[in-house]
Amino acid sequence: MEFKPDFAEALARVAAFWARDCIGRPGLQVTARRQSCEPAPEEADLFARKTDIQVILRRAEHEFRNHHYLAEAVPTYVPGLVCSDMAAFLSEEITIAEDTVWYPRIIDDWGANRLAFDPGNRWWQLTKQMTEVASKRAAGRYLVAIPDFQVAIDIVSLLRGPEKLCYDLLENPEAVKAATRYVLGEAYAYCYREIQEIITRHSPWAGDWMGLFSAGKHDIIQCDFGALVSPRHFEEFCLPDIVRQCQMLDRSIFHLDGPDAIRHLDALLEIDELDVIQWVPGAGRPSAIAWLPMLTKVQRAGKSLYITSSAADVEGLLQELSPAGLMIHVDDVFEALEEAEHLVKRVGRWSARS
Predict the structure, then answer these.
(1) pTM (2 d.p.)
(2) pLDDT for res 44
(3) What span, in angstroms and rounded, lies between the C-alpha atoms of 67 and 174?
């Protein structure tokens, strides 16, 4: 692979991670800046940066050329509009910002407003085009990812409004369940199948926005709305769709985002088909090493674990966590390749001691 010459070794270690195992050390995602950087592409306006695939790929490939990708870090392009793309596929008038997308509240009345996916939707067609162009251009060079679909109740929350949806759990429970079933079972199932078929026509592997990849069907499952509800309502309105999405996939990762999501961890760990928990402490919260009791609980439950850490905390993490089924994304971007390589070697030594 052009931007990842040691991809074969990374492939073997990521396969071990999925299997809740390791090859000598945990999985690592480490990057370093190249000393001779190419000049940045000419700046484009916001809409072009988000929707013009040629502009987008020039910027992405500039990033790939200017970095070293060590261990299991693999350069990956993620098609789509930034986040929660399924909401765009169910609506037309959206507002694209620099780092997010704002979606209109199109569900005003459950009796009058029905979610309906139109294969001709402009944002869906754009995402398909992005995936097709990128997959052809990336072949043998870098990976293309499944977009950030973020389905089921999170999409309904975006299109209804989280405050109204909280009341709906009490006042319109069947309408909520019907909407989440439609998003997952109809819209997501169709879009995922189409996107994966495009990607795998050009490469055996599909990536994701986390930097993981697989030759089978895999995706990142989210339920940010779960932070607003009790365990009882989570079990009734969120958990069934999470289980169904896991069953649709060969490999699945749950994005556990912030302390308010922890109350649902026990229920998630009971899902046999769920392979990986990704823990994200959230902005302003202590880093991963402060959550070791919870992280060890995930490993004891037989799930693989994906965490982000500073380089300085990696040794401390490995004193408590098993390297088997562990992936650590190191959030430092090293200024020198030698420093990054030194960290990877030290992790091998620390793992040998555990």
Answers:
(1) 0.96
(2) 85
(3) 50
